[in-house]
Amino acid sequence: MAKTALVTGILGQDGPYLAKLLIEKGYKVYGLMRRYSQPHMGNLKFLGIENQIDFIEGDLTDESSLIQLVKTIRPTEVYNLAAQSFVGSSWDQAKLTTEVNALGVLYLLNSIKFFSPITKFYQASTSEMFGLSNDKGYQDENTNFHPRSPYGIAKVYAYWMTVNFRESYGLFTTNGILFNHESPLRGIQFVTRKITDGVARIKLGLAENISLGNLEAKRDWGFAGDYVEAMYLMMQAKEPDDYVVGTGICHSVMEFVELAFKHVGINDWKKYVVIDPRFKRPAEVPHLQAKSDKMMKKLGWRPKVAFDELVKMMVDADLKRLNK
């Protein structure tokens, strides 16, 4: 029988890339969606897989709906990618962020524990859990957590609950601590996509500037299409474990901006960028840089798309979209 996978967050950035990978490997893929009158299928259509997924309704905040779908499908693997994922909004929507990002994981784990204990579970953890912990200039699996946002705090709860279900009940549960990963499918509110969309608009004469916050923040940016391969490898391992996933190379927001403008032939980028205090976080995370030795040595994963290739890919996709 073909393997089956339940993917939450199927309409986001990572869900479509993961679904495409699993379909190519022969999986039957179920995509969890909340009840929408008109669900936005743009990201799935971008990859040409909108008709290759079985969509099922459910909600991470509704434990009964999760129990019902796990009982019905009994999937081989569950990839929990759903979240209130915009860090900036988590201060204003702390309760919602906690209900989805923390309690939703508990509900999913309970559903698997009671109704399909052979199902493997992947939790999308995040580098935001590390926050200020940067004593060695990088973060790995041994770095302490010091989250600086309600988003990061909720994700720490989900991380430890995933570990606890593995240690307490013998379930196959794994955390992928993914550092920043981007693509043309990234939501427009995220800084990377805000930059590439803004640069494309300025190049085409559709906008005069981009409003941004902290240009000094440094992140380890990779391509989402590479990172879903890491998720898959974690779920195929003989034993469940937790892994940091990143490129190991750090760049500032300013570098991202400069490269994006340079790609469209604009060298004097500063006159097009407006610094707006509204886009600065109440508590900033200055430096996130992965040390992914464990992932690379144990599971053989390597990132394929370099930083400059990623930026150019995203700018080109936005130029193409806006030209239409």
From TrEMBL:
Q: Which InterPro entries match?
A: GDP_Man_deHydtase, NAD(P)-bd_dom, NAD(P)-bd_dom_sf
Q: What is its EC number?
A: 4.2.1.47
Write down the top EC class of this protein: lyase
Q: Name one Pfam family in it.
A: GDP_Man_Dehyd
Q: Which cofactor does the UniProt annotation name? A: NADP(+)
Quickly give the catalysed reaction.
GDP-alpha-D-mannose = GDP-4-dehydro-alpha-D-rhamnose + H2O
Report the residue ranges that make up the NAD(P)-binding domain in this protein. Answer: 6-314
Keywords of this entry: Lyase, NADP
Q: Which GO terms describe its molecular function?
A: GDP-mannose 4,6-dehydratase activity; NADP+ binding
Q: What does this protein do?
A: Catalyzes the conversion of GDP-D-mannose to GDP-4-dehydro-6-deoxy-D-mannose.
UniProt lists the family membership as follows: Belongs to the NAD(P)-dependent epimerase/dehydratase family. GDP-mannose 4,6-dehydratase subfamily.
Any idea what this protein is called?
Answer: GDP-mannose 4,6-dehydratase
What species was this sequence derived from?
A: Candidatus Roizmanbacteria bacterium CG_4_10_14_0_8_um_filter_39_9
Gene field:
gmd
